[in-house]
Amino acid sequence: MDVAVRTGQTNEGEMIEPQVDEVEAITGIDIQVVTADAGYAYAKVYGALERRGIDALIPAKAEPINSRVPLRRFRTMPRATS
């Protein structure tokens, strides 16, 4: 729904909220779920979307070889709807 070509100097995570705002403005629909690649798998992205009541379907980054805590132990789950 929204595409932005960047030089790579701005972190992708900084752009997700403005992109959500743009899609909402274009469609007139409140976004309920955001899908993105692992490049967006940052706590600040998950937190920003959660504060807005948006489910994040973003895969975890590949696990570092020498990780003390395996990332595979942490998974995002969509919120239950009532």
Q: How does the SSE layout of this entry go?
A:
Blueprint (H helix, E strand, L loop, with lengths): L15 H12 L5 E3 L7 H9 L3 E3 L25
Parallel strand pairs: 1-2
Describe what this molecule looks like in 3D.
The mean pLDDT is 80. This protein is α+β, with helices and mostly antiparallel strands and 82 residues long. It is flat and about 45 Å long. It has a two-stranded parallel ribbon with strand order 1-2. The two termini are 27 Å apart.
Mean pLDDT: 80
> Which secondary-structure class do the elements indicate?
alpha+beta
Order of strands across the biggest sheet? 1-2
Q: What is the beta-strand fraction?
A: 5-15%
Number of DSSP helical runs: 2
* Rg, Å, rounded: 14 Å
Number of strands: 2
Distance between the termini: 27 Å
Instruction: Outline the biggest β-sheet.
Output: 2 strands, parallel
Give a quick summary of the entry.
With 82 residues, this protein is an alpha+beta fold.
Main attributes of the structure:
alpha+beta, 7% strand, 82 residues
